[in-house]
Amino acid sequence: MIIMIAAAAENNALGKNNELVWHLPNDFKRFKNLTSGHHIIMGRKTFESFPKPLPNRTHVVITRQENYAPEGCIVVNSMEKAIEICPKEENTYIIGGGEIYDLGIPFSDKIELTLVHHTFEADAFFPIINKEQWEIINSEFQQKDEKHLFDFTYQTYIRK
After folding, report:
1. Cis peptide, bond prior to residue 37, ω within 30 of zero
2. Which of 63, 68, 79, 155 is most buried, by CB atoms within 10 Å?
3. For residue 31, is it left (φ>0), alpha (ψ between -120 and 50) or beta?
4. What is the pLDDT of residue 40?
5. Distance of CA 135 to the CA centre of its chain
6. Which domains, from first to last, does the chain contain?
7. Furthest C-alpha separation in the chain
8. What is the pLDDT of residues 112-130, one digit of tens each?
9. Spatial distance between the Cα atoms of 158 and 160, rounded to a whole number of angstroms
């Protein structure tokens, strides 16, 4: 199954200057729990935003740059090639950024979205989810607290 996983604001904002514009520790834990042990597909800029490769995951990086070869990654130049090299019998996660989500949505079977209940200035955005193609099968509201400055909702969509 191909699963897009993201945290996006109510205006679909993902981040600015290759960084998230919020900090939600519980969402990071959820991301880690869901993606650990799986292939994760991302763009070069998303990969480069990590201080080091994420443990216990196979990194598949999509880039147009020739000769790009970070250690411990599989590098491809298209979403089709990225999906092709991932095991068909396992979950594969598309983790961003904005351009990669746009490329990945036609291939995706499921979306794990953390909707941050706020709007932000951003330069990267999650694609608009077409409600005629996708349906919510789970929704869990999380209230802001001392570790989370914003309310947010975990939403799981499947393709109709």
Report:
1. no
2. 79
3. alpha
4. 98
5. 18
6. 2-10+24-159 (3.40.430.10)
7. 45
8. 999 999 999 999 999 999 9
9. 6
